[in-house]
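Structure (tokenized):
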């Protein structure tokens, strides 16, 4: 079994922020599936959606998952909100769901210093009712697929990093 930590969860829940803080604290490298796709295609996610549509983006996510499966271990991987649908998600590592309510996530995005940019780069957040519906649909799937759920609502980044470190310790102990 791979020793990767796979962070899943809804857009804006803080997967990338947590990944970067965790790396600073532990020295473990992190990568992000959206960043991998953007650098491989040399295009922003938004542009990929606009030019080629969502199905093409999902293909690129699957390619990325295949590369992670063959090439990556001992890494923290933050995933785009829909990445959990790749066929081999369970082969990539231990899946940790970052969980919070829709309202908390949305308010967090709105109140971020770079709120406009954060919303603009996420095509599936462009219509609020649709985003909310997507959240409700996905929530069940996220819970089903996760090995562990980490609730992040109303917690500080430091607290969340600490919890992730504890979760990781427990996983390693079980593996031994
Ligand atoms: C998506 C989430 C985005 C990005 C793309 C699609 C989704 O990533 O992969 O816009 O389907 O939920 P974040 O979760 O990092 O915003």
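Design, position by position:
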């Amino acid at each position: 079994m791979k020793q990767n930590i796979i962070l899943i969860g809804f857009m804006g829940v803080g997967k990338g922020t947590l990944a970067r803080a965790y790396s600073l604290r532990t020295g473990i490298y992190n990568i992000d599936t959206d960043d991998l796709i953007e650098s491989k295609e040399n295009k922003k996610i938004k542009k990929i959606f606009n030019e080629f549509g969502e199905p093409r983006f999902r293909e690129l996510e699957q390619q990325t998952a295949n590369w992670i499966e063959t090439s990556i271990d001992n890494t923290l991987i933050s995933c785009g909100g829909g990445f959990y649908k790749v066929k081999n998600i369970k082969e990539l590592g231990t899946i940790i769901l970052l969980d919070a309510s829709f309202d908390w996530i949305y308010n967090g995005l709105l109140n971020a210093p770079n709120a406009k940019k954060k919303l603009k780069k996420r095509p599936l957040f462009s219509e609020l009712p649709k985003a909310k519906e997507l959240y409700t649909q996905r929530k069940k799937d996220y819970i089903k697929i996760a090995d562990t759920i980490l609730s992040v609502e109303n917690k500080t980044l430091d607290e969340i990093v600490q919890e992730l470190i504890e979760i990781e310790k427990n996983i390693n102990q079980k593996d031994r």
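Reviewer-requested clarification: The chain is about 55% helix and 10% strand. The pocket of shikimate-3-phosphate is lined by residues 11, 34, 45, 80-82, 122-124 (CB under 6 Å).
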